[in-house]
Every structure is written in C-alpha cells, then in structure tokens.
Amino acid sequence: AGTNKVVDVTGITLGGADLGNYELPDSVTTNADIWKLKLTSITGITADNKTYDGLTGATLNTSSPTFGGMILGDVLTVASADGTFDTKNAGTGKTVNIDNITLGGTDFDNYDLPDSVTTTADITKAKLTVNTNNDNKNYTGNPYAGGNGYTIDGYVLSEGVADIDITNLVYGGSSQGAINAGTYKITPSGLSALNYDFDYTDGSLTITGKPVDPSEFLPKPIVVPVYPVAPMTVQMPAVVGGLNYVNVPASGAPASTGATTGTSTSTSTGTSTSTGASAETSTTAGTNAGGTEGSSASSDETSSDQATDRIDQGASRAIQGPTDVLVIGGGINLGEKPISVE
C-alpha cells in the first residue's frame, strides 16, 4: 500500500491504421495509490483481572491475536497496545478498550486497524481492614449495646470514609447484652462500598466491678417494736356519757351488756370502740364481731373484773400487729410500770 506509487505499463499492443509505423518505447509507467486494507477485527488480545486501584488502566496480553480480514499468507502481529477499563469501579466482565495498537509483522504496513478493539476483564473489590475500638465500662446492671467506634486501614489513593456506606453498621458479638463483669467481644458488621470489601477485627469490652445485690434496691423492711403480752387498761373519761361496755367472761362470749342509750362495736381485727352516754366507759378488743345496743346501766364488780381481764388480753394481742386505736378522750393508760420492748 502507498500513495502515488509507480505503475509499470507492459504488454502494450499498438493499434490503428499506422501501427506498423511505430515501435514501443523502452518503458511506460504511470502512478496510482494502493490503499491499506482495513482489518475487520482483532481478537485474542486479553486483559488481566485486577484489584480495585482507583485507576482505569488495564494490563494486556497481545501474544496471540487473530486478525479478521487479513490476506491469506500475510504476517501480522500486535507490537504494542494500551488497555483501559470503561470505568475505575469494581465489577465483573467489564469492557476494556484496546487503543494505540501498533501492528507488527512483515505486512503490517498494508493494513489499517478496525474501528474498535475491545476485550473484557474483572476489577475485584479492594479490602479494607476495620479495627474495632476497645471499650471499658463499670458495672451498672444495664445490658451493653453498640460499640466504641472503629478505624479503617487500606483506602486507595486519597479515598476515605466518604467512599463507604456506614448506614447499616451494627455491632454484634458476646458484648451485646453483657451485664456482669468480664471480657467480651465487640464485632461490627454491615459496612458496604462499591469498591471495597471489609475484614473486621474484633474489639474487646471489659466490664469491671461487682454486681449490685438486687435486694439493695428493694424497700427496706420497717422494724416495728413488738410489745410482750401484758395487761393494759384503756380508760376513757366518764364525761363521754352513755358508753356501752360488754362484760366478757373468760370463755370469750359476752355475758352481759349494760349502759344507757349507747352502742358498742367489736371487729375481728382485735379492736373495738364504744360510744354512748353512760358514766362508765370501756373499750374492748377481742375476736368476736358484732354490735350491742341496750338501755340498762347495771353491772357488778365481778363481771367488771372479768371484762377488764378480757379487755387487757385483747388489747395486748392487738398491739402486736397492725392496728388502729381510736382515742375518744383521756388517752391510753399503759400503767405505771414500763413495758420492755423485744
């Protein structure tokens, strides 16, 4: 191929009425162009897979090309070429454009290159190492959750945290929910990126301190003094008037009722309060429940003593447990002799 090439003209045969009168010159030439033959394709050039490096360059293997449209018997090779991935990003089966091809071989100058030559190759993701920060906590009784952050090594070129997605970051490992003192693992996961995979290095959670006894958070018991069983007389002033009282014999059943226009009430909790209009007053405490009402005002000394005994016993039983004492007037006479507290 070439331009303005010399064309030798041979085998000329003259014609015309006077052809016998002439001889041919020694040489006859002209000029013309031979255009290069355009190859229809070049295949067999391969590109090496690579790990993401932030660049588009590809490494080519040009040792075994195949040329479409080459004249049989010609010899062609690829002396050199440049490969470029379509984008820098990781992916599989990515297009690699092959440019700046230089043909070799004895017939290289007779051929033009096809419009495009491509191949495919993979860019695998680069690896980032996620170093999980350790954490130290004092015992609080609350379960541990989350982590203490991390650092990342292995970014390509000037890339950084802006090139990864931390939206779905989660922390796992034995640290999650840990309460008691000890050492636990903090394991993050969930980071993602277009061009990176992640290797995670566990962090360590250390909880120090002893667990608090849960009973310390409970209400403290209230210590109530317990009085021994001892006689106790409840006295009320006579001015109340009309007070009924129940003469309780030793058997515990009411023996008589007396007073004028008054009422008496006993409850199963061990206390009773009487109100009325009599000059005599008495409050009973026992185990029977009921109410009495009457209009007589007589009593004898014997039944009064029995009632007093029962009142004392009932009152001293009631004082050992929760009870409400209604003081109508005059207060409670505990006697002259103090009662010891156990």
Q: Provide the helix percentage.
A: under 10%
Runs with pLDDT <50, length 5+?
234-304, 306-324
Assembly classification? single chain
| Total count of helical runs of at least 4 residues | 1
Q: What is the CA–CA distance across the termini?
A: 128 Å
Give the SSE order as H and E letters: EEEEEEEEEEEEEEEEEEEEEEEEEEEH
**From the alpha-carbon coordinates, what is the Rg to the nearest angstrom?**
58 Å
Name the beta content range. 35-45%
Provide key terms for this protein.
single chain; five-stranded mixed beta sheet; four-stranded mixed beta sheet; 1 helix; 342 residues; mainly beta
Write up this protein:
It is a single chain. The N and C termini lie far apart (128 Å). The protein contains 1 helix and 27 strands. A 5-stranded mixed sheet has the order 6-13-11-10-7, with no helix packed on it. By secondary structure, the chain is mainly beta. The chain is rod-shaped. Helix content is 5%, strand content 37%. Strand 24 (262-266) and strand 25 (272-275) form a beta hairpin. Residues 234-304 and 306-324 have low confidence and may be disordered. The longest helix is centred in the C-terminal third of the chain and has 18 residues, at 301-318.
